[in-house]
Amino acid sequence: xxxxxxxxxxWMYYGGYFAQESxxxxxxxxxxxxxxxxxxxxxxxxERGRGSWLLVYxxxxxxxxxxxxxxxxxxxxxLMLGKEQGRLVRVFLHGDSPPDTVFIANEHQGLITTQxxxxxxxxxxxxxxxxxxxxYYLVDPLGxxxxxxxxxxxxxxxxxxxxxxxxxxxxx
Length: 172
Description:
Layout: H1 3-14, E1 28-35, H2 36-39, H3 44-48, E2 53-59, H4 65-80, E3 88-94, H5 101-107, E4 112-114, H6 117-126, E5 136-139, E6 144-149, H7 155-168
Parallel strand pairs: 2-3, 3-4
Antiparallel strand pairs: 1-6, 2-5, 5-6
């Protein structure tokens, strides 16, 4: 009677019945750490968002339906942060054709829009090759590229990762 529960518990433990996921993040951590200010000096976005976390969406094409949906996702993710939303700044890196300013002013107040081809190409090279293009990048207040979120990711999963980082962060 005494050894029965111990044997069953050991069998379940070593048999993998309690195996946990090794990572709890939904986005991809970008390694090695890349400091954007060191890689591409003079980036305007880092100066405008100084002291804040940046959620960056690069899209060099004309801002069509998929682009508008991505901007909406960024806005909703920031709103889902609640009282921590002031620590996150949204950035849209557009291509040669600027987005509709009326649309941005009406629907996405506080969104930083800029054209920085050097930053856009740097972000693209830092994205893991196995992940699809067109996602979101998270940059910490020191200018380090931290995470990449797939374009089809559920915003609540993105917010879980961002909240965890904001909770653990002593900066920004």
